[in-house]
User: What shape does this take?
Amino acid sequence: MRVSEKTEKSAKADRHAIRREVLSCVNASNKKLTPGALETALSERFSMDRQDFKTVIRGLVSDRELIYTYHFGCSFLEKSFNKPTRISHRVVLKPHGMFYQSGSQDVVIDMQQGAAFGSGDHPTTRLAVRGIENAVFETHCLKKEKNTRALDIGTGSGVLAIAAVSLGIKTAKGIDIDPCARAEAGKNIQLNHLEHRIAIHDHDIQDIHEKFTLITANLRYPTLKRLCSHMAQITEKDGAVVVSGIKTDEVSNLLNEFTQNRFKCVWKSFEKDWAGMVFVR
Assistant: This one.
């Protein structure tokens, strides 16, 4: 093998290593990373010039692994969700119109592009979906009834209601005070052909008194704390509540709040500085 061929193969190998490290840095970071910050971090681990770095970044953007975002005139590199993305063991979120070759156990959810909330690009969405999957498949609380019902509080894009029904819950109700969110959720429900199983309303949670097998709430800690006692009233015996939107330093306080309302935590998971939990009544 000629020296030039060896050099070319070595460069390709290095670029593959740089590519893996770029994705690892972006996925692990708790804050948005600028291209300059990424290059600085990688230059400490790899012997590379700026052209190598630019080539790797161009390839990752072209492959829809990364996307440029802009905030106050500054550009950042973030993980791209404009492609089919697995966010739990079974659930794959897919922009509508894109092809995805699903496996036998895959639950593929179509989402309209540009969804304001719930497109999978935030850890709280992924944690909530994983929590729903855990509640449905890993606990026995949802296996006792055939007519299971879910309530998604602050439904946003409707992704959690869609995931709950797609994973086996019979019917679901999503509530949201934002008319734009309700319209978006309705569209996503249509894309997944679930109009006959999911209804979207503008009800206030305090006005809901029927009981549900599963309740999902991807909300911030103060709201979850305020709603905890009411969720306890409308959760069926042996039913489950999936919560997300919690910072890691809020977990202990929220756990105490749910415990006081006769819930037991059966699942906890963390991603970056966010947490998700499943409680059984």
